[in-house]
């Protein structure tokens, strides 16, 4: 594979962190400072790089197997794919994870000949928005915090996204007719539910915890040549014969949507508490 990461490696993340964080004054410098400091890319050059990467992606075993899995789920629910919604892709001109994920979803759009591919991430720069538009995508104008209705069969691509986005997506489509249109690639629901139970951050009865036993989850085996890009992702679909009966009021009564930042803050607070407990214990 050609060095898909070179464009944003003028100053590598490691070098940047080392340079900025050496002095006591800059100790608070973080990943987001690195992303803000990254110089803008040349859109024409980057488009050519992204096109090349899409070509390579569509030949990769990971992509081919993932598309086979998606096709099996579409066949099971007897519907063609009509739309793509991609949330939380990340700053794909600045991190290699987001770049390879961009190539994945853009290649899926081509493979299924999808006209409507919608994207939202609050971190997108103007150059990133322009690149998406050049590659036949549309930027969603406002932050709906994951509340995107599936009125046609839709592939939702939410790689490594905040829990609240998946919760709110389910919240918004909480009926067996709408869920039948949802094909969701995100972190594995089984793992999310297990991790939340273990770390005691589980919200009782939230939509992910509630649906996990009733959805079809297919792990997308990560044999991709770059690590930490496609790890822990699964395809989830929601055939109605696995869902509780429509008159099961307890199951079908919606709980509250989650605030994305509140949820992240809660997780951060829990992590801080765990770190404090660990350092006290050592
Ligand atoms: C952990 S990062 C994942 C980035 C990338 N997909 C990856 O795997 O490296 C989560 C992403 O969710 C995005 N995000 C946060 N709130 C969002 C919202 N309301 N709608 C869409 N994306 C959001 C963040 O900006 C960030 O890029």
UniProtKB/TrEMBL annotation:
Output the Gene Ontology cellular-component terms. cytoplasm; nucleus
Superkingdom of the organism of origin: Eukaryota
- Report the InterPro entries cross-referenced here: SRR1-like, SRR1L
Q: Which residues form the SRR1-like domain?
A: 72-236
Query: Which family does the entry's similarity section mention?
Result: Belongs to the SRR1 family.
Record's protein name: SRR1-like domain-containing protein
Q: Which organism is it from?
A: Drosophila virilis (Fruit fly)
């Amino acid at each position: 594979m050609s060095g898909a990461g070179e464009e944003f490696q003028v100053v590598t993340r490691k070098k940047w962190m080392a340079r900025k964080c050496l002095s006591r004054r800059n100790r608070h410098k973080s990943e987001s400072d690195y992303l803000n400091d990254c110089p803008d890319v040349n859109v024409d050059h980057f488009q050519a790089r992204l096109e090349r990467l899409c070509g390579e992606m569509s030949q990769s075993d990971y992509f081919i197997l993932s598309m086979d899995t998606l096709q099996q789920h579409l066949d099971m629910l007897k519907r063609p794919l009509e739309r793509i919604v991609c949330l939380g892709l990340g700053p794909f001109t600045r991190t290699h994870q987001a770049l390879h994920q961009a190539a994945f979803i853009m290649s899926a759009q081509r493979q299924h000949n999808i006209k409507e591919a919608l994207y939202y991430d609050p971190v997108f720069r103007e150059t990133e928005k322009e690149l998406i538009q050049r590659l036949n995508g549309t930027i969603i104008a406002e932050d709906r915090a994951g509340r995107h209705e599936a009125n046609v069969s839709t592939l939702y691509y939410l790689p490594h996204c905040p829990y609240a986005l998946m919760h709110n997506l389910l919240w918004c489509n909480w009926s067996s007719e709408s869920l039948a249109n949802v094909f969701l690639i995100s972190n594995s629901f089984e793992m999310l539910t297990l991790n939340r139970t273990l770390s005691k951050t589980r919200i009782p009865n939230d939509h992910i915890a509630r649906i996990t036993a009733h959805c079809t989850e297919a792990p997308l085996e990560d044999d991709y040549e770059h690590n930490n890009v496609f790890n822990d992702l699964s395809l989830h679909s929601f055939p109605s014969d696995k869902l509780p009966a429509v008159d099961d009021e307890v199951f079908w009564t919606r709980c509250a949507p989650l605030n994305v930042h509140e949820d992240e803050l809660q997780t951060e607070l829990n992590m801080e508490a765990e770190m404090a407990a660990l350092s006290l214990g050592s």
